[in-house]
């Protein structure tokens, strides 16, 4: 295998596009929806290059050489206006709900920087989710976006049922409510809540504390009558349908037999089959307890879809997931710091250190990590964030998490776009600050390669990122078939953005979760010289790079590094 570290003088500009040599690798299997030749409408109305809007597009598999490159109008405009340095490195995930499911609302989020749309299977029907997923896909096809879709499983922790159709219910101080494992016909009897876990009434004891949604409302158990548990409200608040329930005894979370509840319930398996058939990009698994369940799901997915890949994200939100953290992260394709439920399972004051530990470990193990929940909680109701929320977002950005997530703020809040705009502007500001003032801690990156070839890739990426910082290059270019080299570069968190070129649209979407990567779809060959010339011409034609820009280019086919000026 060739390993080249070449310092090239700028190649002579090629008047016509170079010919593509044949691919050195067997082509990837064709995706199930094979569209041998179609036209992708890109950068529609807002495109500064209307003449480039309609370009031949060769589908997922790389296929024959085309002259197109897939990039969205927003990235294009951002690069053109502000140059490489200003691109946002932290990725943004939005939970889609009633406030954001309409086509124009989804488009507004994509335009404002949503990289991943999350649908939460705790809520909504398959029809509703299908509508959202297809709308996101349509947006990608019509406007050139690479918004990935993440499906989040419900998991089978203890939660309340729905409130007999009511959107919420208010629990007042001192009121007595009944939590019951009986199933009721709606409307529910007054001040009654059904609980999904059959062992509930047996497991709780008089004197236990019952926390709704991690403490948004608190009750004390005062009496057990068969399937009914009478509780007095000690901390009033709003009860929302299907809210999570935990119970605590002597300041400790009680996990009796509910510790035996499966991580992936029968409902979750149906949802996962649905996600596979709709072609989601990520499945986030709620209440993960062990690495085994992740491996189990990954082999299930591998057996089910030969032609598409779905990344599995482990949600770290339970005591068990924290106990088995490293094994779980190693088994997964990424992790989410799910602070909402985590804060109901460990004392709140331990959540920030858990976050820091997870973010750090994920980076060391080269897995993308999402920081989630309550980042801008007050923006569900108000158009501006609190100072504390801005500080929390800043801290997650400073920790250099791959992505930040909106939950209720975008799913059912009053100001979804404003909340996204806050995430975007705070990310940009903090990223610039730490670049200018070197305010981030250098991180020891342990060797993670499992083969000699991987070891070469890892060394190349570590060196390239270091060179990029030392030489002050404008961008790193990586031509990647598996995405691996792109993620290894992202792991180094270099000062400049990383342009990741991949021949598959699904890979492009998956890379969109990772810190600092600007993913493009482009068919390319094993001949780096010709890839580079072609890429330069295409990007120059769209005004996204200019002559004289300094670039370091890597490829996972040749395992090479080249330093060059754009001709
Ligand atoms: N598809 C949907 N339909 C209706 N409401 C939704 C939907 N998705 C989210 N929501 C609302 O937005 C709120 C916040 O969403 P979020 O995804 O954080 O849910 P959650 O119930 O807290 O569960 P999780 O712990 O999985 O995040 C939910 O409590 C719900 O009220
Ligand atoms: C996101 C999520 O599931 C949580 O914070 O609990
Ligand atoms: K969920
Ligand atoms: Mg949760």
UniProtKB/TrEMBL annotation:
InterPro entries: Pyr_Knase, Pyrv/PenolPyrv_kinase-like_dom, Pyrv_kinase-like_dom_sf, Pyrv_Knase-like_insert_dom_sf, Pyrv_Knase_AS, Pyrv_Knase_brl, Pyrv_Knase_C, Pyrv_Knase_C_sf. SUPFAM superfamilies: Phosphoenolpyruvate/pyruvate domain (SSF51621), PK beta-barrel domain-like (SSF50800), PK C-terminal domain-like (SSF52935). It is an enzyme of class 2 (transferase). Its EC number is 2.7.1.40. Residues 88-419 form the Pyruvate kinase barrel domain. It catalyses: pyruvate + ATP = phosphoenolpyruvate + ADP + H(+). Pathway: Carbohydrate degradation; glycolysis; pyruvate from D-glyceraldehyde 3-phosphate: step 5/5. It is found in: Plastid, Chloroplast. Keywords: ATP-binding, Chloroplast, Glycolysis, Kinase, Magnesium, Metal-binding, Nucleotide-binding, Plastid, Potassium, Pyruvate, Transferase, Transit peptide. Residues 458-557 form the Pyruvate kinase C-terminal domain. GO terms for molecular function: ATP binding; kinase activity; magnesium ion binding; potassium ion binding; pyruvate kinase activity. It holds the Pfam family PK_C. Its cofactor is K(+); Mg(2+). Residues 1-25 are annotated as: Disordered. GO terms for cellular component: chloroplast stroma. Belongs to the pyruvate kinase family. This is Pyruvate kinase.
